[in-house]
Amino acid sequence: MDFVLKLHKYKLEPELEAEPCMALPEHQDLSFITIINQNQVNGLEIKTRDGDWIAFDDASPSSLVVMACDGLQVWSNDRIEACKHRVIMSGSKVRYSCLVICL
């Protein structure tokens, strides 16, 4: 199995800081699984089967989010669904995330 490390930096333009803004639209990752660590700046939202969005907030600095991706859904014959997620930003803090992607 191969791994890829990705670093993301999300920064809002000053005129957009007052209102919540879409930093990364809804999507599913194409890999097998994705492991995310955030820098204490909230923004990750995960879509439920009912179509509601759940914010992943107030995690400890050592928390990791493990998400199933398209590869795992195919491998499991649709028994494990790929996680739909997005990033919503507000405020002036820069958001960093570190992703380990298993291919």
CATH class: Mainly Beta
Structural class: mainly beta
Order of helices and strands: EEEEEEHEE
Count of helices?
1
Q: Which regions have little confidence, pLDDT < 50, spanning 5+ residues?
A: none
Tell me about the largest β-sheet: 4 strands, antiparallel
- The coarse silhouette is globular
Mean pLDDT: 83
**Residue share in β-strands:** 35-45%
CATH architecture descriptor name: Sandwich
Number of domains: 1
Radius of gyration: 14 Å
Question: Your description of this structure?
Answer:
6% of the residues lie in helices and 44% in strands. With 103 residues, it is mostly beta strands. The protein has a single domain, classed as Sandwich (Jelly Rolls). The chain has a four-stranded antiparallel beta sheet with strand order 1-8-3-6. A four-stranded antiparallel beta sheet has the order 2-7-4-5, with no helix packed on it. The longest helix is centred in the last third of the chain and has 6 residues. 15% of the residues are buried. The mean pLDDT is 83. It comes from Parasponia andersonii (Sponia andersonii). This is Oxoglutarate/iron-dependent dioxygenase.
